[in-house]
Amino acid sequence: MELAFKALADPSRRSLLDRLFERDGQTLSQLCAQVAMTRFGVMKHLRVLEAAGLVTTRRSGREKFHYLNPVPIRLLHDRWITKYAAPWAGALGDLKGGLEEETMSDTRLAGVHAEPALRHIQQIHIRTSPERLWEAITQPSFTRDYFYGTLVDSTWRQGAALVYRNPDGTVAADGTVLEAEPPRRLVHSFSALWDDAVTPDPAHRVTWTIEAMGPVCKLTVEHEGFAGETATLKSVQGGLSFILDGLKPLLETGQPLMSAR
Amino acid sequence: MNQPKHVYEVYIRTTPEKLWQAITRPEMTRQFFYGNDVESDWKVGSSVRHKGPDGKLNLDGKVLEVVPQRKLVTAFCAVHDAECAKDRPSRVTWEIEPRGEVCKLTLTHDDFDGITKTYKQVGQGWNPVLSGLKTLLETGKPMVIGPAPAAR
């Protein structure tokens, strides 16, 4: 990797790689014709590129052909660029969504915009697979450890009922499955029933979106369609962080955020 | 009132001491802050610099307020982006509240000149940082986020 970095540090050598990228399998004379370098200079640079594994050669009669070997560059990319730069790059990519950008700015944000947003969006990155994350969202053995102790119950088919029950059997919330696309997307209605303040509020909509990013999943949870600044909206704004921050260690460490009391 | 700002709340299973170290020490920040090493003596008025693995200065700021293990306020300028670098420095506040075996971390990014490029960019930028910080403190290992899936 050291050799590859050194080889790539020189603009003349990068220019030779660009020529091979345009047309693979060229002779020394062909390469010399395209760059402002002496034949000796091109030979010297090709030797460095070959030593770094970036160029391979094949002889055919009196001719020697040079080929680009992209593997070390791919490795550099995977080891360095993806690790450090991709998150910012990914962030910028997301912002290109135009209208999307204002929506995403609401992430983890509670009513601080000029106009009160009648929705609450939150995003979290979790080291897990989409399948396991889907299971954690839809199975009571998981929800009891992060969703305020409740047990979720549903067949998760479109049109099916869903209910979050407290350990004593009372209902904390219920709803209907509107869309289920395991392990990517789940949309359901949601009626909050956990106290007298929220119970009169009409049902709103919850969308769970799972995106795999290498070994990590990006989970976006959106609560929307509130009838106004309802008690349910305020409760969701205050409580969703806690739910998702409990889900994450459960999947990453097998332990809930807080030990059972 | 109603100035643009971003507010993030994260509950992390850790102590205020460890959380403070994670925010203020380069050997920690490089594991969750886009590979950046933080450099500062953490005295009010001192500079705070986040430098990439190549030594490039990405974030340039200044310490505005320090209450170790409780509160850190810094000026923030995203000099890695030519357009963001033109924005007046904004303000980042880290607040740590111990809650039993958990800490509640509240990060507030505000004092923007309206909806600036910096405001838009950091709206997405903080999420992976905070998720990575939480993973690092809870599992002892960094979270390496892969490339975003290709658009469908």
> Taking all residues together, what is the mean pLDDT of chain B?
92
DSSP strand (E) fraction of chain B? 25-35%
Average of the residue pLDDT scores of chain A: 82
Order of helices and strands of chain A: HHHHEEHHEHHEEEEEEH
| Corresponding CATH architecture of the largest domain in chain A | 2-Layer Sandwich
Overall SS class of chain A: alpha+beta
Span from first to last CA of chain A? 51 Å
Q: Strand-and-helix sequence of chain B, N→C?
A: EHHEEEEHEEH
Give the C-alpha Rg of chain A. Answer: 28 Å
Helical segment tally of chain B? Answer: 4
Structure, described:
The complex is a heterodimer of chains A (261) and B (152). Chain A is an alpha+beta fold and 261 residues long. Chain A has two domains: 2-115, Winged helix-like DNA-binding domain superfamily/Winged helix DNA-binding domain (Arc Repressor Mutant, subunit A), CATH 1.10.10.10; 119-253, 2-Layer Sandwich (Alpha-D-Glucose-1,6-Bisphosphate, Chain A, domain 4), CATH 3.30.530.20. Chain A contains nine helices and nine strands. In chain A, the strands form two sheets. A seven-stranded antiparallel β-sheet of chain A has the order 3-9-8-7-6-5-4. A two-stranded antiparallel ribbon of chain A has the order 1-2. In chain A, strand 8 (204-213) and strand 9 form a beta hairpin. Chain A starts with a helix and ends in an 8-residue tail after the last helix. The longest helix of chain B is centred in the last third of the chain and has 23 residues, at 117-139. Chain B is globular, with a radius of gyration of 15 Å. Chain B has helices spanning 16-24, 26-29, 82-85, 117-139, and strands at 6-12, 37-39, 47-51, 57-67, 71-77, 90-99, 102-110. In chain B, strands 1-7-6-5-4-3-2 form a seven-stranded antiparallel β-sheet. Chain A binds chain B through residues 80, 82-88, 90-95, 101, 104-105, 107-110, 112-114, 123-127, 211-216, 218, 241-242, 245-246, 248-249, 252-253, 255, 257-259, and chain B through 2, 4-13, 34-35, 52-53, 80, 100-102, 119-121, 123-125, 127-128, 131-132, 134-135, 138-139, 143-149.
